[in-house]
Specification:
The chain is mostly helical and 234 residues long. The chain has 9 helices and no strands. The chain has helices spanning 13-19, 23-29, 41-47, 52-64, 78-107, 115-150, 160-166, 172-184, 192-233. Residues 83-222 form the Hemerythrin-like domain.
């Protein structure tokens, strides 16, 4: 018998957010907006056209930190999960990383021959490029392949195991960037700006790690299950 998950469809959506504020990110990536009063999760999802079981699968996965997938336990929708992942990619590439870069430029002194400041900025730009390559590959190759599966087409040139073999962690470089800032950036009169951007980098690192886990432990097994089902039908 499976343990019941923490959050249920009958819980108030506002209680989920107050219990774990990182679920605000999950909400926005499902396209859910605030202002839902005292409605429960099921009613909020239904009124905004979001698959409730998929939202809860991700919310519980992120909160419980569980890294197992039970086919009988999670009846989420693969199209809804893929839509969530696409919105997450847009968030990182179009909003989060550019915002961190702007704060970084404001916080470090790039005006004079400050070798460390230029190194930090260059390192960040390289990192952002790597994240873009990683996510664009998923958007173009992986999600297109899964769209084909959902339409009933198996490919003989690609499968989800190909993606798994290439799916490397993209938060490692952020760890190195944090270390450069913490250990080597010279102290200035007011470090509030630098500490604020460092805080954002820590958050981004955690968010990216969590995003990759959702891909590895929810998305990949669901796609594998879909592949198996189609093979059995052919």
């Amino acid at each position: 018998m499976n343990e019941p998950h923490k959050y249920r469809p009958t819980d108030k959506m506002s209680d989920l957010i107050c219990d774990n504020y990182s679920l605000l990110m999950v909400m926005s990536r499902f396209g859910l907006s605030l202002g839902f009063g005292d409605k429960n999760v099921k009613d909020v999802c239904e009124s905004q056209g979001v698959d409730c079981s998929t939202f809860l699968a991700v919310a519980n996965f992120i909160t419980e930190g569980q890294c197992t997938y039970d086919e009988g336990d999670t009846d989420f929708s693969l199209p809804a999960l893929m839509d969530y992942l696409k919105r997450a990619h847009a968030y990182f590439l179009d909003f989060n990383l550019p915002a961190i870069r702007r704060k970084l430029i404001e916080a470090i002194d790039c005006s004079e021959a400050n070798g460390v400041a230029m190194l930090i900025l260059r390192y960040f730009d390289e990192y952002a490029k790597e994240v873009r390559r990683h996510m664009e590959y998923e958007n173009e190759a992986v999600f297109t392949y899964v769209d084909g599966l959902l339409a009933g087409h198996l490919s003989d040139r690609f499968n989800i195991a190909t993606f798994v073999s290439k799916h490397n962690s993209i938060d490692t470089k952020l760890k190195e960037l944090k270390n450069i800032i913490i250990k080597y950036y010279p102290e200035t009169g007011n470090n509030n700006l630098l500490n604020a951007v460092l805080f954002d980098i820590f958050n981004c690192e955690q968010d990216l790690a969590s995003h990759c886990q959702v891909e590895d432990f929810l998305f990949v097994p669901a796609v594998t299950q879909m592949e198996r089902k189609l093979r059995n039908e052919h």
